[in-house]
Amino acid sequence: MTLGLIALLAFAAAAAILFVVGMQRANALAGAQISSLHSTPVYHGSFLAIVSLFPAFLLGLVWAAVSEPLADFVVVRGLGTDFDALAEPDRNTLLRFARAVAAGTADATSEIQQRAADLFQRIDQISTWGIAAILAVLILGGLVFGWRAIAPAYRARHVVERTVMALLIAASAVAIVTTLGIVLSLIFESIRFFEKVPFFQFLFGTHWSPQSAFEGAGAETSARNGEVFGAIPVFTGTLLITAIAIFVAAPIGLMSAIYLSEYATPRVRSIAKPLLEVLAGIPTVVYGFFAALTVAPLFRQFGSNIGLDVSSESALAAGLIMGVMIIPFVSSLSDDVINAVPQSLRDGSAGLGATKSETIQKVIIPAALPGIVSALMLAISRAIGETMIVVMAAGLAANLTANPLDAVTTVTVQIVTLLVGDQEFDSAKTLAAFALGLVLFCVTLVLNIVALQVIRKYREQYD
Amino acid sequence: MTDQLMSQYATAETRSIHTTSDARGRLKRRYRSEANFKALGVAALATAILFLVVLLSSIVWKGIPAFVYNFASLPLDVAGVDRTDLAKANYDGIVKAAIRAQFPELTSRGDTRLVASLMSSGAPTVLRDQVQDDPAGLDRAGAYSLPISDFADLYLKGQISSSTTSTIAATATVRVDGDKVTLTFPAGALATVLAADAVPANAATPPRQLLATDLSLLVYVGDVVVKADGLTTTTVSGAAILGDATKLPASVNAVRLRSLVVPEASRKFSDKEIVWTDALVERGYVRTGFNWIFATKGASREAEMAGILGAVIGSALTLIVTLALAFPVGVAAAIYLEEFAPRNRWTTFIEVNINNLAAVPSIVFGLLGLAVFLNFFGFERSAPYVGGFVLALMTLPTIIIASRVALRSVPPSIREGALGIGASRLQAVFHHVLPLAMPGILTGAIIGMARALGETAPLLMIGMVAFVVDLPNGFASAATVLPVQIYMWADFPEPAFEQRTSAGILVLLVFLVAMNLTAIILRRRFERRW
């Protein structure tokens, strides 16, 4: 990483120097008559820096990304059958250790390690010199080309602007790449999981205890793992907590929005609305802390006072606080859609003699219903994906229950517990987290797409 | 008004279907339901705001005490310290000896160990650091102030147990029998200060044994403190836990009885420790000061040695990377989409994509980071730069959306003016539109950064839950961030950690408030209405 940082700084310094050099060359060529230049000297400077460094920079980036996997690949090929004989986890250890040996920070303990280390060293030497040579050729070639191209009539600005444009387009593609990265990583890891655990047993099994998962291959392990990776209890737990949260957030959020947009004076509105937004700005870990250490014990105490057995990690506490967290989502989205209902509908209703509440209940809400429903869908998607509150306040045990006083677990809690602290990524346990993540992603994606679509349709209706 | 008119109105009223008594009833009902509906709205809003107030006040209430701490500057025996090699001295022994020297009468192994535990287990390290910083203090009494243990601190902050002390006016006779001290009061004297049900009813009933689950009764006689374990109508007896009981006179005046509300068995700070701590305070060794340990240290298993600075630095490093990546990329993407992109399927696709990315659960970004950055590229776990990458991907949609709104609000006349005097399209955007949109863009970026600062789940996935004692010193060194530190502290069962957690939340909230205020000020000062 420090190496990367140094390289980056070196590139920046070189770019600055080349920029000045290019500018001076343009100035010198123009002489006293600066207007003879097609592009201002700034563009010539930038042009020289770009043609010299940009290709090298791209190559450097690509190289940083692929050099390690490439070296691994070559070493694995070099070791041949000896490597194939190793078990999956041992292979990774061997490679990691051989790297350390090659770097001189460890001593080889076996013959195969030494061989791998030697290979790594050789590859490292060859590739370092090779890449350095290619970079030098690219930079020098660019420099010579650029130097000779700079002339008063040369359209340097066009080159610079085209490069900037390409960068802008590349930046806007980052979002696509991110989505693609999410989808691909989730799908690949999930496929590996479903090799170990049958798909339908995962989706419809009713017993979830990943701690007792079996390792290894074969039909028997697969059958055993199918029994412990039944995700239904996890899904129902998520649904239970989400339902409680919506049960809290929907009435409070909706009524707040109605009050704020239809009744409140501008003064009240200007105070209450930011306060609600503060609720949205509080980090979820704070809600989690509050739920786990204040609300849950309170519920437990209250329950034991009236003779109810409330779990200390009850779904109720987590759901309630999650509901509080999503109040601002519901209220601000509903506020938007209520405000989008045209004034003429209100006036018409008032003209017929309806009171304000009648107007709201019989005219505004029906008119805003699609928007309100999609606001609730977005809130549900938020609640399903929310992690910290449930990690801190909900349970780990996957109970298949609808009792809000019991402890239940959720998809996000399971993802966190399966992955935190675990360093190996090949066991069914850790892969299960990706399968759960895939389900989570798909469900929230569908909710979001449908909700956004409905909102857009609805806006068009009144625009 | 004439009578005729009145009667006209009256007949008109009675004739209208809107004024029959039924109609009046209906109207009344409708108005009532109107009032109810409005009240419901007020109630909903009030509930939401009440939650906010309760949440914040409970955290402030719990967190504020953690910013101060009690330090003891005991006289230290530093004769054994080698002045040429300050790092090597046995500071552990020095601290233990210093606290034991305060209570020379304690001889049993259990007691000496217990009294030594009044000082924090981190005290020797703190002493070593202070001696190295200020060797001249070795010759000055009370130059070094060391943290006391977390429970002693909680006790001094009044969070272990409340107590009531009352003085008995009557003279008592003292009988010392080995360890056991018995005080005999005149009849009825005890009942004046103790609750009626605490004292046995009459002399005939056997003495009441005070168990660890009963109330704790401490008797202060002169310099001696007796922990009462037996109670009769007229006598209190028990072992002396402070001072030399054999030196007590045969009869004493002004005996003070102190009862602690929380029984000894339900607290982790025994009566002995309470008495000893009080003695240290009385002797003037303990002072309350700003909790510099919390402000300057990294993580620790000991609540009193745990600090927030490591997490603050980790958060700063992470956010620097996030900002350095997400801001230029986000603004560039927004410029392209808003200013240059043709309306076609590809750009619509990108837009839908960005909107959906903004709503993807944050934990999914953590999974992405784990699968791509850690597994595929083999980056280090727990490193701030990986955290920065993940958070940058997460904040990118927020920044893009905010920047697009800001760019859109710049009127087309600006672009047209620039193009009209011969600027290229890029020049028009970069020289004219972008500077005007900058306040809005910065506001959006700060809000995105604030969200990233409070984000926990994706960082858990990439291993930023490491237990990092040292302050992180670079983008690649193992680090944790503020919200993750809060999450980790919340898991520790000690009550002192609960305080630290709340205090950590306060620190996080202060940063968030500062960022949001900056955003608001930026918007207020620089935003133009066209």
Summarize the structure.
The complex is a heterodimer of chains A (463) and B (530). By secondary structure, chain A is mainly alpha-helical. Chain A has helices at residues 2-30, 41-79, 81-84, 88-103, 111-149, 156-196, 199-204, 219-228, 232-263, 266-281, 284-305, 315-340, 343-351, 356-385, 388-393, 411-419, 428-462.
Notable traits:
heterodimer, A: 463 residues, mainly alpha, 80% helix, B: 530 residues, alpha+beta, 9-stranded antiparallel beta sheet, 3-stranded antiparallel beta sheet, 18 helices, 12 strands
What do you see in this structure?
The complex is a heterodimer of chains A (463) and B (530). By secondary structure, chain A is mainly α. Chain A has helices spanning 2-30, 41-79, 81-84, 88-103, 111-149, 156-196, 199-204, 219-228, 232-263, 266-281, 284-305, 315-340, 343-351, 356-385, 388-393, 411-419, 428-462. The longest helix of chain A has 41 residues, at 156-196. Chain A starts with a helix and ends with a helix. Chain B is 54% helix and 12% strand. In chain B, α10 runs parallel beside α13 (384-408). At the A-B interface, α2, α6, α9, α10 and α11 of A face α2, α10, α11, α12 and α13 of B.
Write the layout of secondary structure elements.
The complex is a heterodimer of chains A (463) and B (530).
Chain A: H1 2-30, H2 41-79, H3 81-84, H4 88-103, H5 111-149, H6 156-196, H7 199-204, H8 219-228, H9 232-263, H10 266-281, H11 284-305, H12 315-340, H13 343-351, H14 356-385, H15 388-393, H16 411-419, H17 428-462
Helix pairs in contact in A: 1-2, 2-5, 2-6, 4-5, 6-17, 9-12, 9-14, 10-12, 11-12, 12-14, 13-14, 14-17, 16-17
Chain B: H1 3-15, H2 21-63, E1 68-72, H3 91-102, H4 109-116, H5 123-133, E2 146-147, H6 150-156, E3 163-168, E4 172-177, E5 180-184, H7 189-193, E6 208-209, E7 216-221, E8 224-231, E9 235-242, E10 251-252, E11 255-260, H8 271-282, E12 286-290, H9 292-296, H10 309-340, H11 345-359, H12 362-376, H13 384-408, H14 412-420, H15 425-453, H16 457-461, H17 482-491, H18 495-526
Helix pairs in contact in B: 2-18, 3-5, 10-13, 10-15, 10-17, 11-13, 12-13, 13-15, 14-15, 15-18, 17-18
